[in-house]
Write a structure and sequence with these properties.
The complex is a heterodimer of chains A (about 280) and B (about 260). Chain A is globular and about 70 Å long. Chain A has helices spanning about 5-35, 50-55, 60-90, 100-110, 115-125, 130-135, 150-175, 180-185, 190-200, 205-220, 225-230, 235-245, 250-280. With about 280 residues, chain A is mainly α. In chain A, helix 3 (about 60-90) packs across helix 10 (about 205-220) and helix 10 (about 205-220) packs antiparallel against helix 13. Chain B is an all-alpha fold. Chain B has two domains: about 1-45; about 55-260, MetI-like (MetI-like fold). Helices cover about 80% and strands about 0% of the residues of chain B. Chain B has helices at about 1-30, 45-50, 55-85, 95-105, 110-120, 130-150, 155-165, 170-200, 200-205, 215-225, 230-260. Classes of the chains: A mainly alpha (about 280), B mainly alpha (about 260). The interface between A and B is large, with 86 and 85 residues.
Chain lengths: ~280, ~260
């Protein structure tokens, strides 16, 4: 099939050029700008510096980075805790409409994320459903302050990102070869042991893929704290946004964006490593 | 027996978690009580108010035109490229595939920011064109992935047969390949359409003052607070997205059935 013709060259060239010009080059530009100095008049001054990366450790920004990583870690852990059993039960079940049930998980993801965040806001407002119900039942006397808290932001992140964890997990667990589990059982392994020694190691690629799809966005989804958290709970995404739109400090904003790309690169690497390892072990 | 019970309960609890907030929105959009604190009468008042909002109607129209353009461009480029990538080996194929996956995985905010840098550096005025470029870039990987999953079940011998019978590349594509991947093409179009309609992060950075799009209009509305008009708007968008997704999923799923025939 090593044939070259006009049709093939043109079609590949268009997508390759598009992605080079509008994805690859912009990222390279961002990378380079992160080593430039801030300019008072323009976007940046062409002068090499590492100051942008050093300011990660200044007390002001370190707090934001630390807080954002903390929230992303909590979110990822919660989503994994909720999503793994769900994906496991669904994938190993023998429901007639199994694939339809899996699609039901995707549907909320394809509807505007803003609207889903807004839906959480509606739930949590002072005179919203939760407060009204609790008051009517008599559990509380005055409305609780649910909105504009760190918990609200985490709830928003978990709610928005849960499908991203469930889907890769579902795909890996669905592909799991039942014979391994049966073999382990026949050899006398308890159900707990089968789970920890067979099922979890074999689903590591799915776990990493899910964590990748959850952890990264939970650092960047700036509209969630904007809508649910007030100004207190800054994410890295809010920091990047403000550096570009308010502070007009492109070099520092680029450096923070690069941090996200570096994290992504590490997680992608871990994913490919684990997927390869499982494959070579299994096949 | 009781274990199976517990498992089912767990599944339904997660589904409730995913859907209850959306159902409450839909319910409130038809509820006459302004703050949703009490169950009032059925009303279409908020929908009427919504359509009286000129800025919102204009933003919806803008988004619609943009989404149709984005979906069409992304689908044409993505489909042609996927077929060629699937059929041929060429220099840099792995680099291109890696690039596609990295774009798919990249946080929206990083893509949006880096495109903003590009547009400002090359001095392209922010507006329709920049939004179009941004959304096509976001959508391309999704189109390619949808096409790849369909092409995976494609019998390459059919292409050889067409070639032996004298069809050139274009004819082979038009008469042999396209008809059998059509469901994935339509699904890719619908996915791109929803990506463009829903994207708020990319649009946030690459839109200009003259061209307001729906997600950003919604963003400014929901930041201010909870209003029944937004509930009505959300219900309409949820309904439309739901229909589009169901259609695209049906189209994508059919292939697994025909494959075994």
């Amino acid at each position: 099939m090593k044939e070259r013709n006009f049709f093939n060259v043109v079609t590949v060239a268009i997508i390759a050029l598009w992605l080079l010009i509008f994805a690859f080059i912009p990222n390279i530009m961002m990378f380079i700008i992160s080593f430039f100095e801030r300019s008072e008049t323009g976007f940046f001054d062409v002068a090499f510096t590492l100051d942008n990366y050093k300011s990660f450790f200044s007390s002001l920004y370190f707090q934001v980075l630390f807080n954002s990583f903390k929230m992303a870690t909590i979110t990822t852990a919660l989503v994994l805790l909720i999503g793994y059993p769900f994906a496991y039960i669904l994938a190993r079940s023998n429901f007639k409409y199994k694939s339809l049930l899996a699609i039901l998980v995707i549907i909320p993801y394809w509807t505007s994320a803003l609207i889903r965040t807004y839906a959480i806001k509606v739930l949590l407002t002072t005179n919203g459903i939760i407060n009204t119900t609790l008051e009517t039942v008599g559990i509380i006397d005055a409305p609780l302050n649910l909105l504009y808290t760190e918990g609200a932001v985490i709830l928003g992140l978990v709610y928005t990102l849960l499908p991203f964890m469930i889907l890769p997990l579902y795909a890996t667990i669905d592909k799991l070869d039942v014979r391994y589990l049966e073999a382990a059982g026949d050899l006398g392994a308890s159900r707990f042991k089968v789970f920890t020694y067979i099922i979890i190691p074999l689903t590591v690629p799915g776990i990493i893929a899910g964590c990748l799809l959850v952890f990264l966005p939970s650092l960047g989804l700036f509209y969630i704290p904007d809508i649910l958290g007030g100004a207190k709970n800054l994410l890295i995404g809010n920091l990047i946004k403000d550096q570009f739109l308010l502070a007009r400090n492109w070099p520092f904003g680029s450096a923070v964006s690069n941090l996200l790309m570096i994290i992504m690169a590490f997680m992608l690497f871990a994913y490919y490593k684990s997927a390869k390892k499982i494959n070579s072990k299994v096949l | 027996m009781s274990e199976k019970y517990l498992k089912n309960i767990y599944l339904w609890m997660v589904y409730l978690f995913l859907y209850i907030p959306l159902f409450i929105l839909i319910f409130l959009s038809f509820n006459s009580s302004r703050y949703g604190t009490s169950i009032g009468e059925f009303t279409l008042e908020w929908y009427v108010k919504l359509f009286d909002n000129k800025g919102l109607v204009e933003a919806s129209l803008n988004s619609f035109i943009l989404a149709i353009s984005v979906a069409t461009i992304a689908t044409v480029i993505g489909t042609l490229a996927s077929v060629s990538i699937f059929r041929f080996n060429f220099f840099g194929k792995n680099f291109l595939l890696t690039l596609i996956y990295v774009v798919l995985m990249s946080p929206d905010i990083v893509m949006g920011i880096s495109l903003l840098i590009l547009f400002l550096v090359i001095d392209l005025p922010l507006g329709f064109t920049t939004l179009l470029i941004t959304h096509v870039t976001f959508s391309l990987p999704f189109v390619v992935i949808a096409l790849f999953s369909r092409l995976a079940g494609f019998d390459k011998n059919i292409i050889e047969a067409a070639k032996d019978l004298g069809a050139d590349s274009l004819k082979t594509f038009w008469y042999i390949i396209l008809p059998s991947i059509l469901p994935a093409v339509v699904a890719g179009w619908l996915l791109s359409f929803t990506i463009s309609m829903d994207d708020s992060i990319g649009s946030f950075f690459t839109t200009g003052p003259g061209f307001e799009v729906l997600p950003l209009k919604i963003y400014s509305m929901v930041r201010l607070g909870v209003t029944p008009e937004v509930n009505a708007l959300s219900t309409i968008i949820f309904g439309l997205s739901f229909i589009l997704i169901v259609i695209s999923q049906i189209l994508l799923r059919d292939k697994t059935k025909t494959k075994f025939k």
